[in-house]
Amino acid sequence: MKKLKRSARLVEMTQYLLSRPHTLISLTAFADRYQSAKSSISEDLAIIKEVFEEEGFGELNTLAGAAGGVKYTPKMHTSTALSIMENICRQLEQPERVLPGGYLYMTDMLGQPELLADIGRMFATAFANRNIDVIMTVETKGIPLAYATAACLNLPVVIVRRDNKVTEGSAVSINYVSGSNKRIQTMSLARRALKEQSRVLIIDDFMKAGGTIQGMMDLLYEFKATVAGVGVFVESGEVENEERLLEDYVSLATLTAVDLKTKQTKVIPGNYFNTQV
């Protein structure tokens, strides 16, 4: 790369860091890239760090030593996240979104890049300090949420299928009981998709009693994998505690009331905001 003026270097360094979250980058790599002294690079990083933290873009952490460097961790201020989720909750309360069974139509929202980026940063904030190897979701609506989170955590995504695809090769399949309607259903995961003993973050779009997520947990047991966390976009608050199959999870929104006759709903920010400082 040609030698840049400092103003241009700051812009390019910022973009470089934003596109490589959770990646340790050495000062030597930056010095070589910009043909600049390490002292100049350190001063630039100090400026970027200050702006990132003041504007709520995340943290820029420095690791000392020969193998050290800097690592960008995307995060979102709780106040910013709350403002975004309150707006999302108002959208989810629209009467036309109510579906039979007390579900909400969310497909259109899960196709909006800006909203997905915000949700990904919220989940990335909640699970930033977990030791995670891979993100898992079940087809289909959880896929965009999983990839948005993966982009912020810089992790691969594994997709659980409802049925085994010939193009996936050999797979592990299990039967599980849906927590909401008590039906027996099937899910499968290709053997090549997940390494044994991986630490997995499960992301899903909607949770009623938690049967689907519990099914994914059972599937992970077959791979000798560990559940490092569970993130849910919207949870149903109308499920009795004794029916809930999960206790440890992070939800961004809670559907507290649904009137199928009047199409009136109440959606509030989820337990994410009970745990964030």
Q: How would you describe the overall organization of this protein?
A:
The chain is built from eight helices and twelve strands. It has helices spanning 6-18, 27-34, 38-55, 78-92, 113-126, 142-153, 211-222, 272-275, and strands at residues 58-63, 69-74, 98-99, 103-104, 134-138, 157-160, 171-177, 184-190, 199-207, 226-236, 250-259, 264-269. The protein has a six-stranded mixed β-sheet. A two-stranded antiparallel sheet has the order 1-2. It has a two-stranded antiparallel sheet with strand order 3-4. A hairpin with a 5-residue loop joins strand 1 and strand 2. It starts with 5 loop residues before the first helix and ends with a helix. The mean pLDDT is 91.
Order of helices and strands: HHHEEHEEHEHEEEEHEEEH
Please summarize the sheet with the most strands: 6 strands, mixed
Question: Percent helix among the residues?
Answer: 25-40%
Provide the β-strand percentage band.
25-35%
Q: Average the pLDDT over all residues and give the rounded result.
A: 91
Major sheet: arrangement of strands: 6-5-9-10-11-12
What's the helix count? 8
Instruction: Please give the alpha-carbon distance between the first and last residues.
Output: 41 Å
